[in-house]
Design brief:
The protein is of the alpha/beta class. It has 15 helices and 15 strands.
């Protein structure tokens, strides 16, 4: 807040300054944080519409308040688009009401789990999301299945643990899983144990919808994601569920998990979903993967350790233990040059979650800004130089060049 002290005399000056500062970060920084991307401009505009005037607790045609007909149309249209994007059968329904991906996960937990039910999931040190561990372990026994030596899920051990613990729910997916997950194999294991299967595809929903990754359907009973990861939507969750669980999902949404939904965000989700049906979705998804693989290849060639040996998605996870560098230090160092990455746990990480031994890079924003292959390679070498401590006469000049060249493509205001 020290940056805002000179604007305290006038609240309007303060607000305007904050907005200008944010646009400045968007315009002059390279954004490699894997859990967010630049939304469609149409989705941003949708957030400003007055959709939040009337409360809409409940599902379409079963609300607790009147005056919700327009929101019924929004939700119904969104479900149609989700069905189209993921080629869903009539066995599945969906909702755009969850406030976030985490709350979409909580809706699943609240809909199907009793307090004594066991859950299998990935640990956060192996790429699982915090909602699969911290939030869930407060109420249910949680058993973590491991990664193999290659950093990929050990499906044999997962099956052994499922037989041993007889879980009610198996969760796959997470926040730092660069490689494609074999959802069909996990679905087979779940069915064999009489367990439900929940796929958290926040980081891979775009790849699944585009056909770059194999579908999670019809193996998954539930799938959840947040549209802000790489779907170019607002920060808000989506839940896909087998229709047999619709009543439980409705109850878990409201009042068990959250109050009324955020109507403006729901409208922006609809707009983003509609945009996704009009673009070359496969080309967009494949380009994210191609850029990530280019980054990973160069970083490996420069001597950095890339977790799992590479990537099948937009994520590149770098293990910095050989450099005797923490993720927090690397994040801060790159940020000092206006390059944003995030610290991240790696497998068998000895560091605490706020320190970590790794950093995670994402390529969604580079893809949206249409970075060329030569510039991707230049950026990869620049990142390697910074992480390896290689001296450079003018390290900021490349950042100035790339942000000046690309960022204005997305933001007309700049």
């Amino acid at each position: 807040m020290q940056y805002l002290t000179r604007f305290t005399e006038s609240s309007s000056d303060r607000v305007g300054a904050i907005v200008d500062m944010y646009w400045g970060v968007i315009g002059r920084w390279i954004h490699l944080i894997a859990s967010a991307c630049y939304p469609f401009p149409e989705a941003m505009k949708a957030l400003a519409e007055p959709m939040c005037v009337f409360p809409i607790e409940g599902l379409p045609s079963a609300r607790y308040f009147p005056g919700t007909q327009v929101m019924d149309l929004i939700e119904s249209a969104a479900e149609e688009l989700i069905t189209e994007l993921f080629s869903l059968s009539d066995d599945y329904g969906s909702t755009i009401q969850p406030h976030s991906g985490t709350q979409a996960n909580q809706v699943v937990f609240n809909a199907v789990l009793n307090a004594t039910d066991t859950v299998l999931s990935l640990s956060t040190t192996d790429g699982g999301h915090i909602s699969h561990k911290v939030l869930l372990a407060r109420r249910n026994p949680v058993v973590f299945y491991p990664l193999g030596p290659d950093g990929i899920i050990d499906y044999t051990k997962l099956e052994e643990l499922a037989k041993q613990h007889q879980p009610r729910l198996i969760i796959a997916g997470g926040s730092a899983c660069p490689r494609e997950i074999d959802f069909s194999k996990i679905g087979r294991i779940a069915r064999g144990m009489g367990a439900l299967f929940h796929a958290d595809v926040s980081h891979t929903a775009t790849f699944i919808a585009a056909g770059v990754h194999r579908s999670v359907f019809p193996d998954a009973d539930f799938a959840t994601f947040n549209m802000s990861k790489n779907m170019r939507g607002p920060n808000g969750g989506v839940l896909i569920y087998r229709r047999g669980y619709q009543e439980r999902v409705a109850r878990a949404l409201f009042p068990d998990t959250q109050g009324g939904p955020n109507e403006n965000t729901m409208f922006a989700k609809l707009v983003a979903l509609e945009k996704l049906t009009t673009i070359d979705l496969r080309g967009y998804a494949q380009r994210m993967v191609d850029i990530a693989r280019s980054l990973a290849t160069i970083l490996k060639e420069r001597g950095l350790e890339v977790a799992t040996g590479g990537t099948d998605s937009h994520q590149v996870l770098i293990d910095l233990r050989r450099q005797d560098l923490t993720g927090a230090a690397a994040e801060k160092h790159l940020e000092s040059y206006r390059v944003l990455v995030n610290r991240n746990l790696v497998s068998k990480d000895p560091q605490k979650p706020w320190i970590t031994s790794g950093v995670r890079l994402g390529t969604s924003c580079l893809t949206i800004l249409e970075y060329s292959d030569p510039d991707v390679r230049r950026l990869a070498h620049w990142i390697a130089d910074r992480l390896l401590g290689v001296e450079s006469a003018d390290p900021i000049s490349l950042i100035d060049e790339l942000t000046g060249k690309y960022n204005s493509r997305l933001i007309p205001r700049l």
